[in-house]
Amino acid sequence: MIMEPERKEKLMQDIETALDSIRPHLEKDGGNIEVVDVTDDMTVQIKWLGNCEACSMSAFTMKAGVEETLRSKIPGINAVEAINGVKFG
After folding, report:
1. Is residue 36 part of a domain?
2. Does residue 44 belong to any structural domain of this protein?
3. What is the dihedral of CA 53, 55, 60, 62, to 10 degrees?
4. In terms of DSSP bridges, do strands 31-38 and 79-82 run parallel, antiparallel, or are they unpaired?
5. Residue 46, exposed/middle/buried by CB under 10 A (0-12, 13-18, 19+)?
6. How do residues 39-86 score in pLDDT, each as one tens digit?
């Protein structure tokens, strides 16, 4: 099912607001996060910025910080994936 543009815009705003709660922690280490897109299947695509892009802890930050924050504040988020950064596995 294709997401309506108005719903997607509201969802993107809600995601940004939710991420504002963890941004200070990322910025303290010289990094940040950018929301790239929300897919129709409710996957949030992010881009690591600054030191977060090359950080070996980004996988932990993704699961324990970013994904947990978004899922707890925005019902329906299925997953979060980074389109850049350190690849694991």
Report:
1. yes
2. yes
3. -10
4. unpaired
5. buried
6. 999 999 999 999 988 888 888 888 888 999 999 999 999 999 999 876
Asked if residue 41 is part of any domain, the answer here is yes
Among 30, 39, 37, 35, CA closest to 1: 39
Give residue 23's Cα distance to chain centre: 11
Query: Looking at the 3D structure of the chain, how many domains does it have?
Result: 1
Element (H, E) at 85: none
Q: What tokens appear for 31 in the block?
A: 């990094």
Residue 61 belongs to what domain range? 5-82
The alpha carbon of residue 22 and the mean position of all alpha carbons in its chain are separated, in whole angstroms, by 10
Looking at residue 13, what is its pLDDT? Answer: 96
Q: pTM value?
A: 0.88
CATH number at residue 10: 3.30.300.130
